[in-house]
């Protein structure tokens, strides 16, 4: 156990020394890996922010309840009180048909059309904000409200939330695919780096083997080398994404404000950051392992 | 301790380097292996730590048939055998100290203990003052002593040396021979292939002469 720990410590130290011995190669390697990793990591950062923004904008789905055109004042009052008493409604707002008409008259272009109508074409309506936002709950409420007396039509305003959700899922898939492709690239780059390393360490490997080194012993410093280079690439990617976040923060906030939303970009969330470094190290390790296996099999 | 039983070795596509070789080495012996160039001395020595495998027969080291040893077990066999190679196989990008440290690092000996043992081994071959030097800075005789220090640092029970005095002047070669005698005196079983038979003659327990892959006498 002690010998095992010692071997790992020595292998890690040797790998670090080899990285430090060729600073230019190490830096270039980290840059190549970092740029490859920065693309999916940046995509993930944008996605996380987009999701927060989407939640901000479309957080509360609404249910519109339209009364029949000829519904009496009493009917409207009756439905209003039912809606207000309902356990699942958070907010109920009555939009009177006269107000709707007035709003349309004020809007350019439509004013003339509206003016010429024989009577008010708009019904009284309620905008209901539900407590439970789950799609099933919303649909249940829609069906229930539709049965209220003199209610003509109930509309769920969740269609575009669904569209947004589908878009987010698609984007997430694209980021995952990008990560997979660039992950393969990372393994390939490490594979080649280690292959070149093996050429320069040939004597040492041969002598070590003659003196009783196991395959694991010979492999270990290279595995650490691959993992450390992967981690360095991860760091470069993380810094690049961090820089991009701060560069985008101002302009994005400004655009959001134009839409009346107070929004500030966040950096890559912690779980994604951990995943970035973990995967970078793991893929570097894998590339080294494949390279060594090919060599040791000879 | 070491037993060759009707051993044959044929290199791929080559002639038989060894044939019908049967002999045994007892613990504590010092065997001198001689014979013309190409007689099969190096091949014979390489069979002991399983650097080469026989194509026929059995090579038994410490009760283990090395010829049938699994690949994964070979490293542990080698750790118990000190080897001095014909071409030395020193690492020229590492200091004298680090070269001797290598077998102990491989065996996982704790650092402080290892440092002490490296210095003890360097002291035995008279290289303690040069521990920080790089191997290129050493003379031929010093390089050979470095190879010996590396071979004995892990305190193997068997020492196998292939032409350890080649290219050395007689005085230096005599020093090396005396060094092997000293190791043999403390119980190490020694096999040396050499052309400097006269230098080793006073110390050896037995001579084995090879001729075209067979024992000549
Ligand atoms: N790796 C090898 N491949 C093919 N033939 C070899 C190899 N090593 C040695 N031989 C041949 O085996 C025979 C014995 O060689 P070797 O054991 O080196 O003899 P010695 O050490 O006594 O000079 C020689 O004919 C040599 O050419
Ligand atoms: Mg030879």
UniProtKB/TrEMBL annotation, chain A:
Gene3D superfamilies: 3.30.70.3040. Part of the ABC transporter FtsEX involved in cellular division. Belongs to the ABC-4 integral membrane protein family. FtsX subfamily. GO terms for cellular component: cell division site; plasma membrane. Residues 178-294 form the ABC3 transporter permease C-terminal domain. It comes from the Bacteria. This is Cell division protein FtsX. It comes from Candidatus Desulfobacillus denitrificans. The chain crosses the membrane at residues 21-41, 173-194, 222-248, 274-292. It is a multi-pass membrane protein. Forms a membrane-associated complex with FtsE. Keywords: Cell cycle, Cell division, Cell inner membrane, Cell membrane, Membrane, Transmembrane, Transmembrane helix. Pfam families: FtsX, FtsX_ECD. It is found in: Cell inner membrane. One of its GO terms (biological process) is cell division. InterPro entries: ABC3_permease_C, FtsX, FtsX_ECD, FtsX_proteobact-type. Residues 62-154 form the FtsX extracellular domain.
